[in-house]
Amino acid sequence: MTKHQRTVFYLSDRTGITAETLGHSLLTQFDGIQWEIISVPFLDDIEKAKVVSVQINQVADREGNRPLVFSTLLNPEVLEVIKQSNCRIFDFFETFICPIEEELHQPFARMAGRSHGLQHHLSYFKRIAAINYVLAHDDGVSPKQFAEADIILVGISRSGKTPTCLYLGLQYGIAAANYPLTPDDMHTKALPPVLVNVKNKLFGLTLNVAQLHSIRSERRPNSQYASLVQCEKEIRWQESLFHECNIPYLDTTHISIEEISAIILTRRGLRRQLYG
Amino acid sequence: MTKHQRTVFYLSDRTGITAETLGHSLLTQFDGIQWEIISVPFLDDIEKAKVVSVQINQVADREGNRPLVFSTLLNPEVLEVIKQSNCRIFDFFETFICPIEEELHQPFARMAGRSHGLQHHLSYFKRIAAINYVLAHDDGVSPKQFAEADIILVGISRSGKTPTCLYLGLQYGIAAANYPLTPDDMHTKALPPVLVNVKNKLFGLTLNVAQLHSIRSERRPNSQYASLVQCEKEIRWQESLFHECNIPYLDTTHISIEEISAIILTRRGLRRQLYG
Known about the structure:
Chain A has ten helices and eight strands. Chain A has helices at 17-27, 46-63, 76-83, 92-104, 121-136, 161-172, 193-196, 209-219, 228-245, 257-268; strands at 4-11, 33-40, 68-71, 88-91, 151-156, 176-181, 202-206, 249-251.
């Protein structure tokens, strides 16, 4: 079946992150459509809105379908210009703000850029400190400072430790270290000594053999390191280590970095602090 | 004025990222309220929903105000249990899915975890490659490979290059390198030689003197490096270098990493690819 194409606009006064995140989660619920995406961040005056309006009308004419427009526009005049175009508009603020005002008995501030703005200097420092911690403790570096970690991810090479640590630091301000399990450790079913005293902070990452093989083959094609035999051996060993030592772990084969991070926070009871 | 407290629940079948993004962007529009936030990700069966329902009712009794609930729940039975509680519910899918179905003339898939799931193996590899690129080219490392960068951020120490590069890699799959401008470069108003051939990829980050002083003081209190005089000298020099060499740049003093990243992508015309 060939997919048919529809165009979607993300319009925002500021970064567009909210409009994109929300629109994306709705559109992924519809199969068989090839989405052409046009993001217009920083749409903050009427002249720019008129240009976008013309663009919307051109797309509608060309495709024979009006575009979908997801908006977090706060300026009512800008929004009005867009509404005059040939589109189906979904405005996140207009939809929800009124009932929230009613519930809270107070008007909203109508200030753009609040959700991704730099409002809390303190939380900015905490976030930067977390990122620095992650960078300074990647791949088993400086294990003496592991006591300061909020969490320490463990797993074999290419199990996804580094991207997950970075996401935890950037998105949630979590001081996440990671430590690689290597074939050198495989002679035993005991934890590497450096991890023994921080056992309660450990969380394991594993994945299936085919996926590990595929990821390692990207890095070093046809190597022993990437071979199915080696991948299977390392995975079987690390999973039995996790069992033996009672370390919680997660199979990441079919999930994204966002999901891995959210699951880890939930399972370890770590407080989520949203910056993004 | 003391803030009064209200409680908000973020309920989701999966990670909760969409529900949190939605709620956060709306609630930051209301001043004078201290929000107590309770995130419940992976709320995927009726038994769990009953526990949350009890919790909602307890909060409502205790605070004398019903909690606000932002939901991206897809399971109608789970949602129904929550609706029976003493809360004001804002359900994201229920609100928007019907009009989109109508517009597209097709039903939605009702599949949890699509928006942050691992749907595209190819884009997973691209994302990991971007993160690896960022890590391998932080702080001026391996400038010989700058030709492969999508963008190269330049600026003095603590101008925010590293967190911005990481965010560009993680969130947008952008191969972002960065190169520090140091006091050693300050004898001239010419670009460091290694940057001359990649001038069209450069983007400068600057900030105001007080903020740089405050950030550097966190790192090395009372040092010459953190002194107001030194901060001012370096900022003045780098801004005149950006002018002289016609390098686009941004004052990041009052904006977040998310905003810096979105502005850079827009101003350099880089294609945004959303993963989060």
